[in-house]
Specification:
31% of the residues lie in helices and 41% in strands. The protein is an alpha+beta fold. It folds into two domains: 48 residues; 99 residues, Sandwich (Immunoglobulin-like), CATH 2.60.40.10. The strands form two sheets. Strands 1-3-6-5 form a four-stranded antiparallel beta sheet, with no helix packed on it. Strands 2-8-7-4 form a four-stranded mixed beta sheet, with no helix packed on it. A hairpin with a 5-residue loop joins strand 7 and strand 8. The longest helix has 47 residues. The radius of gyration is 32 Å and the shape is elongated. This is DUF1573 domain-containing protein.
Amino acid sequence: MKNFSKYSVLALASALFFSCGNAQKEKVEAATIGPAAVATDSLSKAAAQLGKIEFEESAFDFGQIKEGAEVKHTFVLKNTGDAPVILSKVNASCGCTQPEFSKSPILPGGTSDIRVTFKSEGQVGKQQKIITVQSNASNSMTTVQLKGEVLAK
């Protein structure tokens, strides 16, 4: 009977020792996972708080023009996101196409214009000019295009 009591006490002490270790381990795991979950949640909220650019039209077809003519077109974009958008750079795929844009912040729900001038001198044939827009929006790089055909003089 004494041996049984000794083993019972040893088993009980072991059970308490290991169960306390598991409880401590669960607390450590919860503390480790907790901040990561909070950080991920904060990143998700921050990502949701970005602006987003949407153009009224992704391409403008100017049809047929005679060589030497200039085509001017205005692309209108809207910020459909939750934070202001700032256009940092607007480039055209060719030196014959010049974009103009505002660097003022575009508030959520607001619009802005990108005015494009295409000079057709020396550009005979089918044309497709890509205008690349870089910004701080969730879709940080977007494009629109100007296309048509230039007929020889």
